[in-house]
Amino acid sequence: MSLREILVIPDPRLKEVAKPVETIDEDTRTLIKDMFDTMYDAPGIGLAAPQIGVLERIVVIDIQREDDPQTGPIALINPEIVEESEDRVVSEEGCLSIPEIYYDVERAAEVTVKFTDENGETVTRHCTDRLAICVQHEIDHLNGVLYIDHISRLKRDRVIKKFNKLAKRAS
């Protein structure tokens, strides 16, 4: 088990756009395993590679629900949303890179995501409920977008100010 440090705002790497993964090899699979270990240890339900300082388009998610056999651990390499519903939902979100802060965010209720799995297979998956929200949240990370970028400027500025103060105290 190899845990990685999770970056916290205002780390500028969280605002960078991740690069596509060109080759899926043992290093990629090791990174994915480390990402799952780090996510579970945090604990969280999703983690994007930029959150651990790796600017590659890789996401891991595990929203295991006993009532839904299609949930469980999934790794998405180079994911892209190819379709989203017009229906919107508002749900409370948090983020491992913005610890202990939660806000309601509006997102598409359903999305279809196309990605490559760790075996190099292309997968297209329709996502609903919590999985749809998590996929959108994590893909945002790959594009340098944080969930607080979806809330009001006043609330976002308050969060950023708080974490800037914490970062100053830590240094």
Please provide the ordered H/E string of secondary-structure elements. Answer: HEEEEEEEHH
Mean pLDDT: 94
Helix content: 25-40%
* Percent strand: 25-35%
Q: Numbering strands along the chain, what is their spatial order in the largest sheet?
A: 1-2-3-6-7
Number of helices: 3
What's the CATH class label? Answer: Alpha Beta
Per CATH, which architecture?
A: Alpha-Beta Complex
Query: Alpha-carbon distance between the termini?
Result: 29 Å
At the fourth CATH level, what is the homologous superfamily?
Answer: Peptide deformylase
Q: Structural class of the secondary structure composition?
A: alpha+beta
How is the main sheet built?
A: 5 strands, antiparallel
Shape: globular
Q: Low-confidence parts lasting 5 or more residues at pLDDT below 50?
A: none
| Secondary structure: number of strands | 7
Radius of gyration: 16 Å
Number of domains: 1
CATH topology call = Peptide Deformylase
Written description of the protein model:
With 171 residues, the protein is α+β, with helices and mostly antiparallel strands. It has a single domain, classed as Peptide Deformylase. 28% of the residues lie in helices and 31% in strands. It contains three helices and seven strands; from the N terminus they run αβββββββαα. The strands form two sheets. It has a five-stranded antiparallel β-sheet, with helices on both faces. β4 (88-95) and β5 form a beta hairpin. The longest helix has 18 residues, at 153-170. It is globular.
